[in-house]
């Protein structure tokens, strides 16, 4: 009976609760109908106009030559058709009900999918809530506006709703159409750097460097070559269909209609800047990457062409729009670049040509941006091959004297010759990438940098420069500050970028000095590529990180040899760590589909200033050399961003003599860079931490200054001791000795 009585009480309680809920629902339903009843048409109009933005983006994917305005008008028509199809399906399933749900769901899905695509899958929760809030406001705005204007309802609820949703939608619109938010980490990190005074790096650069990077005084002329009467010089076509194909879908059909040729007759075309009064000039061929094929991307390096030509270089910007908006075409890009080199060198031999004898064919450099940055390594590889690695029936015969490569924000692994990664040897290599690259977010060029090796024969070097605040597109005048096109660009944060002028200046300076060193043999400012601090007075103010390795570098350990973390690359060398929570070798994937990823040593410690790693080596003579290693912070806590990575580098000779040098006396090693690429990152207070390595070079003389008794001709151990940090998480790579 007690159980029955308890059950009856529960039943009565549930009945009363349900009754109250019904009353509340009835009141709400009456309230809703009084204000928003029969207002779905207002929502429908707003939903169509809003959804058409997303549809316009889809239209542009297939009809790239159209303007955004025309695409939006077409998007409205497409949206109405889509709604019609949805209504037909809904009518079959629900009758004439649920109209509001259909008008609500489509704009929500489009908004969310565009946001996810723009942020490359990051910030999904923040994007979801932003989409929900936006569509709810859009719903209530459309309904209240329709009720007031069309249905002549005048209630306080409607007016308040209209005001609030108008303010909300204007705020969202301002957020999406504006440049976004500023951040302060660059300023804060530079302040930390200023607190460390590196005496050896003060005032190294002088007026000679200022003169070297100045605009030249040589008169510059330019011309374009291609197929057709509109070009200054006539060229030929090349059959690219062996290496790339246009899509057979609608977008491929539109591309066929836009171009007046197919890939069997791809034109060899580009623009040349050259000094009018000079002869036998070193030459740089530069190739753009993937972008809308309606954009003249090759003209985006005009500023670089004019600058270098005024300083005695010939510059050729290759038009590779034939390869744009294709897939699996990077080998085709490389072939087209080599065919352009062949064509321009023909002009150089033609006595009737304005380019006659302008070029020193023994001093050629190639540069590429984005997919072009990957293709230049492939082009260098093909340049030395006799046949195409994926089809030996296709013969090569290039063999140009390419001495230097510049890769600007490159991709990697988009093309893998015969299923191998692109690996090249004995060439000078410069990698440049920005922290705020919203297209190639990871430094894929680190793989190309790693896969550029030296045989020990000849004098070469490779260097990598990482630039805080630089994005993907500002290196090219035709691309600009938005790295992704409409409508995804609305979600990109660009207010925290360095200026376009600054980003171009960095590229100009490093390109010019790199060519001076590697093509003209002028070693005066070579230090720029491993010690930017000596030149920072003349560089745009931002955070830089560098890697460097010369062809005479000898490894102690690159951590690639095996899974035994106590062994090293150098024969009979041993590795040991102490006072750490984690000591391991980690794999860092830089490419997109390759197999030879990079391994490095990881050390993590807490509540101690005695964490260290020690390399025991056979007696080594470092006379006239530098001890080098790359190091990067791995911490992902923004609260740890107020301390530079520091410690002691210690060497011991075979007699037990010890010499110590502080890391901060040789290099500035920044904490992980807390980058915010997207507007939702600021809304959600989220960060993408960048862990680019920084080279630390300790010259033999610094050890001798610390202890003149140290015998640098018989070093038996190297220690890196983190005695300045109570906790840390770092990776160390490429430990060894290089020439000064």
Query: Can you count the beta strands?
Result: 29
> What fraction of the residues are assigned to beta strands by DSSP?
15-25%
Approximate helicity band = 25-40%
Overall morphology:
globular
In the CATH hierarchy, the third-tier topology of the largest domain is known as: Rossmann fold
What is the structural class?
Answer: alpha+beta
- Provide mean pLDDT, rounded: 92
- Overall number of structural domains: 4
CATH architecture of the largest domain: 3-Layer(aba) Sandwich
Number of helices, counting only DSSP H or I runs of 4 residues or more: 16
Q: So what's the CATH class of the largest domain? A: Alpha Beta
Rounded Rg: 31 Å
Amino- and carboxy-terminal Cα gap: 96 Å
Largest sheet features? 10 strands, mixed
Show unreliable segments: none
Relevant CATH superfamily of the largest domain: Alpha/Beta hydrolase fold, catalytic domain
Order of strands across the biggest sheet? 2-1-5-7-6-8-11-13-15-16
Task: Explain this structure.
The protein has 16 helices and 29 strands. With 740 residues, the chain is an alpha+beta fold. The protein folds into four domains: 28 residues; 141 residues, no CATH class; 313 residues, Alpha/Beta hydrolase fold, catalytic domain (Rossmann fold, 3-Layer(aba) Sandwich); 186 residues, Jelly Rolls, CATH 2.60.120. The strands form seven sheets. It has a ten-stranded mixed sheet, with helices on both faces. The longest helix has 35 residues.
